[in-house]
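REVIEWER CHECKLIST
Item 1: Sequence provided? yes
Item 2: Single chain? yes
Item 3: Sequence as submitted:
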Amino acid sequence: MAESQRETATADILRALIVISRRGVADARTANLSLSMTDQSILGFIVDHPGCRSVDIAEAYRLNRSTVSRQLAGLTALGVVREATDGSGRGRRLELTETGLAAYDEAIGILHRIVGSQLDGWSDAEVARFARDLQRFNVDHPDAGAASETRPRHPLDDPTGSSNAPQGTPEEKEQQ
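Item 4: Structure as written out by the authors:
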């Protein structure tokens, strides 16, 4: 593939991923407990990594610990996440409450049905190939550098006070 074709294909992939993400957030908001994409991803991480800690989430998503802490405080206030009672000291293990698990299951169910309908007409082999390709795509590339060197900083953690910081409510910021 020529370099310009690869760049065009890369741009097409990026646009498609953005559309998928935005649609997923919008569609999941039809659930009883409206969760942002960040909320959904944190709940999903906790489900997929039982006993994880906030630092594990920060490392996995390349976020500052303070960002994860603020997000978890909101999820705790909603009654969907709690610290495991067997933990002690710093880095307590996280778990979903019954409400949290129900909200997560509902959001995932909505998204699963949407993805399933998008795949109508695809063969089993095409679906399997797409799943493998997405899994491969999501693996960190060894040449990408350390997460702390490459990830964007949260605007509130940026000492330069960048004027590019998203403004408005959390929902508006997520859409920016």
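Item 5: Key structural point noted by reviewer: Helices lie at 3-28, 37-48, 54-61, 65-78, 98-118, 124-137, 147-150, 170-175.
Item 6: Recommendation: ____
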